[in-house]
Amino acid sequence: MSRWTAAQRREITEAVNCSPAVCGPRPWSLRFVDGAVELCRNDRGQESLPEAVRRDRLVSCGAAAATLEIALRGRGLRTTLRLDPDHGTEVLARVTVDGGLLVTERERHLFAAVFLRHSYRRPFGEQPVNHDTCARIISEHGPDGHGVEETQVIRIDDDAGIAATARLLGYAAAALRADAGYQRDLAAWSQQESLGDFDTMPWALIRTSTRLPDQPTLVERLRRQTTLLVITSGDTRIDHLRAGVATQRVWLAAVVRGMVGSVHTQSLHLREVRAGLIEHLGLAGFPHVLMRLGHPAPMLTPPRPRRTGGWAAAR
């Protein structure tokens, strides 16, 4: 495709802007060039942000890159995605169009899921996610050679892993709840939601109002949900982008199957929590995103899909 029409630009941009973004304005912009769409950094003046926040912003850009490819393929275009194609420039991802494509039912469903995805911050319904379904969802984290060998999505479902995760999340929640600087930054870029009884771990963002459950309660809550962890073999720019691609693809694969979810990175801002997960879970890499998936609980009014928000507040 040599030229993009105004309608194509608008449609693709709307889809990509449904991707979760962190800390205020979206950290990406799109550039339409002959035969490709480039996803570029949009973080001028953000160099002073903490390392963990910069990492989260790259992860969210990776998610946007995944959405970009899904949007193009959903419109009948054969694509090739390359992350960090020019090695360190402002271009974080480039999706090249390689001709036409017969759109499959799966691709149509993924494209529709882009607009349905939202953050679900409350307990799931009683129906569990069976292991086979979870395995199929995880298998979609990085097809077509998108760094799949350097990226893993694992399920934390053994007793020791759940207990260790609960201890680390409890520690992080107490530390972040008392961190005035962190709370000030959080209030500046996220909206306070009225969660009522659900303003507690592991569902809510960690604010000064968040109630911290005791250890046995948190362990039981984690046991009753499906908890995934996205890790990469390295901790560089391209690894952070790969983690974002994996997270978005897994999330959308779950939405296609009628599930909901949310992601959590706040606790991973603490070095000791990241190190603790690596040690206690025996990880062969670096953790970037905790994800919870499940079936929605019955509600009188379904939640309205959201199109903006952060990884910590991923909407």
TrEMBL record:
Pfam families: Nitroreductase (PF00881). It comes from Thermocrispum agreste. InterPro entries: Nitroreductase (IPR029479), Nitroreductase-like (IPR000415). Gene3D superfamilies: NADH Oxidase (3.40.109.10). GO terms for molecular function: oxidoreductase activity. This is Nitroreductase family protein. Residues 117-295 form the Nitroreductase domain.
